Amino acid sequence: MKNINIGLIGFGTIGAGVAKILLENDKIISRRLGAQLELKKIADLDVTTDRGVKVPDGILTTEVNEVIGNPEIDIVIELIGGYEPARTFVERALNSRQSVVTANKALLAKFGNELFAAAKANGIDLYYEASVAGGIPIIKTLREALAGNRINSVCGILNGTCNYILTKMGDEGADFAEVLKSAQELGYAEADPTFDVEGIDTAHKLALLTALAFATEIDFAAIHVEGITNIKPVDFAFAREFGYKIKLLAIAKNEAGRIEARVHPTMIPKEHMLAKIDDVFNAVFVNADALGPSLYYGQGAGMMATASAVVGDLVDIARNLNSDNLRRIPDLSFQENQIKPGNYRPMSEISSQYYIRFSAHDKTSVLSRIAGILGSHNISIASVIQQGGGDGDAVTVPIVMQTHKALEKNLRAALDEIDQLDIIAAPTAVIRMESEL
Amino acid sequence: MKNINIGLIGFGTIGAGVAKILLENDKIISRRLGAQLELKKIADLDVTTDRGVKVPDGILTTEVNEVIGNPEIDIVIELIGGYEPARTFVERALNSRQSVVTANKALLAKFGNELFAAAKANGIDLYYEASVAGGIPIIKTLREALAGNRINSVCGILNGTCNYILTKMGDEGADFAEVLKSAQELGYAEADPTFDVEGIDTAHKLALLTALAFATEIDFAAIHVEGITNIKPVDFAFAREFGYKIKLLAIAKNEAGRIEARVHPTMIPKEHMLAKIDDVFNAVFVNADALGPSLYYGQGAGMMATASAVVGDLVDIARNLNSDNLRRIPDLSFQENQIKPGNYRPMSEISSQYYIRFSAHDKTSVLSRIAGILGSHNISIASVIQQGGGDGDAVTVPIVMQTHKALEKNLRAALDEIDQLDIIAAPTAVIRMESEL
C-alpha cells in the first residue's frame, strides 16, 4: 500500500483538529489502514496564529495552489466553510482529479448536485461525513450499513446550539434571549446566531439526509424551515404537562414517494429516544423497513469530533485510492441515474397533531367559540388545559389544546379566523407534535 | 458491474428475514449497488416448513454442498448458529474461496481467530455485522468510521432479553423469575434462557468488540461474566434512590494498554445515555479520543433487524468483489500483523464504585462493625441508607451503601470478613457502579 498525501485548506478550529489527529494518531491510523496518511500542506491566509497544534516546518502556506492541482496531493480537505471561495476551490480540486473531503453543509446544500456531478465526471470521491451531525457516522450508515433497507423517515437533532438552548429553557424555565446570551458566553452559540436559531443550518443538513435517504436531488429550497426564537417558557411547562419535550427537529419522511422535509420546533413524547438527547448533543433517528428504528448519537460539532469524521473519510478514500477503486460508493447513496427531483408535499398538505396556545381574554365563552371554529375546519381536540376561568376583560389567560391529527391548511385557516376574534389578545402560538417518528 | 450470487445456509428466522429482504427489496438494493444480489440457493435440513416468505422454485435444498464450493455462489451466508456444523461449513466455504457473512457470535468468540486467519489466507472476506447488537452498525462504525480515533472504551447493552427483564423489574418491582416467565410468553426469552441471563451471549459479543477496539486477539476466556439472576427488586428501589439504573453492561476499557473486559449487572447514573435504553433494545456506547462519546441504538435481535445487518455486509462484499478488492478492511479493524494477545487486568485489580446491600440483624452495632471492616480494607463509604434501627435479633434489615472507588480485591476481602459476622443474616449483595463510561 502506498502512502496517501493530504492537503488541507482552511486552518481554523476544525482544520486544527484534523491536523492534530493526523499528526498525533498517525500510528494508530496506519495500524488500521496499512498505509500512512501524510499531511503535506495546509493552506490558510493566516499562517501565524497559534492553533495549539505543532505542524512540521514548511507545511503551512498562504498559497492555495500548493494544495489544489499539486500532483503530490491525493486528497484535498476543504474546511473554510461558506460558499466562496470554498466552491471554487472544491471545483478546481475535483477538476484536478483530486478527491475532496469537506464538512461544508451550506456548500453542499446549495451546490451539491453540481459538485457531485463534477466528482463523478472526474472519477474521484467527494466525501462529506463531517457535514451532517459532526462526528456521528450518519452518512456512512445511510450509504452503506442500511443498503438493504427502504428508508421511511430520518429525523434529527442536528444543531447543538439550538438543542442546548431548548434544553436549558426546558430545565430552567428561562427566556430564549437569556439562554442565548449564556450560550454565547459559553461558546455554544455564535455572536450572530441567525443560521443556527432560525433553523437554516439544520435545514442544510436535512437537505443532504433527504437526498441520501430517498434517492432525490439535493433541494434546499424544498425544505420548510422554522426556528426556535418564538418559543416561550410557558410552552415548555405545558409540554411537560402533556408528557412531551420540545426539540428543533429535522424531519424527512417518504410516504409512497411523497416526501416531507421540514425543520421546526416539535413536541415529541418524552419516552422517544430523540426526547432524551440533551445539551449540545446531536442525534439522528432513522426508521427503515427492515432495521426498524435506530438512533445515532454524539457530538454534532466541535474541533475534535468533527475532525474525527473528516479523518474517517480520509481513511475510506485512501482505501479506495490504494485499490484503484474510487467511486466505490455513489455520492448520494444511489446510483446517479436513479436520482430524481423529489416529489415534495407542500406544507399546507401535511398532517400533524398540534399544540396550540391561545392568549384569550378571560371570558366564559372563549372556549366554545374557539372549539366551534376548530370543529368547522375539521380539527378535533384531544385535550384542553384552561387556567383561570373568570369573566374579566382585562385578564389574559392561556388556553392550551392538543389536537388530533389534522391538515396543516385546515389548522392555518382556523387560526386565521380565531385570531380575528375580539376575545383573542395575541397571535396564537402553534407547535407541531410528532408521535409517529 | 456483474451480479453477485448468494447462497444461504440456515433457513430459520434470520435466514427467512434475509431471503425476504433480498427478494422484496431487490430493486432498492440494486439502485444503490449498481448490481443485483441474487439469492441462488438456500440450504436447510427442513425444506418444507413455511417461513412466511415465498422463494423461487428450485432454490431450497437439503444439500449444503450446493452452496459450499459451488463455483456459481460468490458469497455464503451462515445462519445456523452454534459451533457445529457452523464452524465446519464456514471453514469449508472460506477454503473454497467463497466470502462469508455470519451472525454467529458464539462461533466467532470461540473460533474467530482461526476463521479470520483462514479468510486472510484465502484472500476473501468474512463479515459479521449481525453478530453484535443485531441491526446496529457497530462493527462498521468501529472498523471504518472511527478509524482516526484511539478508542478508550466500548460499553454496551447487548442482550435484549436481559434488558427487557431488567426494565420490567425496575418498572414493576417484580421478581426475576416472574418477569422471565412473562418474557418467555412474549417470545423475548428462550425456553432455556441460560445463555442470555447468565451473560454468556453478551460476553460473546464483547469478545468481538474488545478485539475490534484494542487490536487484540479474540479472547472469550479473558472476559469476566456475571448474569442477572441474583438481582432483587429491592436493588432497583435503592438504585432509584441513588439516581441510578441497573443494566447488564458489557464493558471494555483500555487504560494505557491494560484491558478490562467484563460483563455484569451495573448501576449507571440515570442521566447516562445507556441508562435510557429500555426494553429489548440494544445500544453501544463508545468513548474515543477524538470523537468523544457516541452511542448507537437499535434492535439487537429479531428477524428483520438482524437480516438488515446481514444484507449490509452482502452489499459491502459485493462492492469489494466487483472491484476486485476483497480484504479492503481488515477483519478486526487492525492490520493482521498489529493484532496481539490482550494484556488483561484481572478482576481482582479493577477498581470501581460499589453498591453493597447487607442483610443484617437489626442491632445498633451493625453499622459501626461493617464500616470498621470496610475501612480496614481501604474502602471508603460515600453514602448509607439504613432502614429500621431497633435492637431485635429476629428482624433482618437491609443496610445499603455506596462506596467511593475501591479495588475489587479489597472489597472481596472485606465482604468475606463481614459475611462471617454473626450479625449478618445472608450473603451480602454487590453491584458495581460505573459513572466514568
Feature tags:
homodimer, 437 residues, alpha/beta, Rossmann fold, Dihydrodipicolinate Reductase, domain 2, Alpha-Beta Plaits, 11-stranded mixed sheet, 13 helices, 17 strands
Describe this entry's structure for a reader.
The structure is a homodimer. Chain A is an alpha/beta fold and about 425 residues long. Chain A has 3 domains: about 5-135 and about 305-340, Rossmann fold; about 140-300, Dihydrodipicolinate Reductase, domain 2; about 345-435, Alpha-Beta Plaits, CATH 3.30.70. The first copy, chain A, is built from 13 helices and 17 strands. In chain A, the strands form 2 sheets. In chain A, strands 7, 8, 9, 10, 11, 12, 13, 14, 15, 16 and 17 form an 11-stranded mixed sheet that branches. A 6-stranded parallel sheet of chain A has the order 3-2-1-4-5-6, sandwiched between helices. In chain A, helix 1 crosses helix 11 (about 305-320). The longest helix of chain A has 20 residues, at about 305-320. In chain A, about 55% of the residues are buried. The mean pLDDT of chain A is about 95. At the A-B interface, helix 1, helix 2, helix 5, strand 12 and helix 11 of A face helix 1, helix 2, helix 5, strand 12 and helix 11 of B. Strand 12 of chain A pairs antiparallel with strand 12 (about 290-300) of chain B.
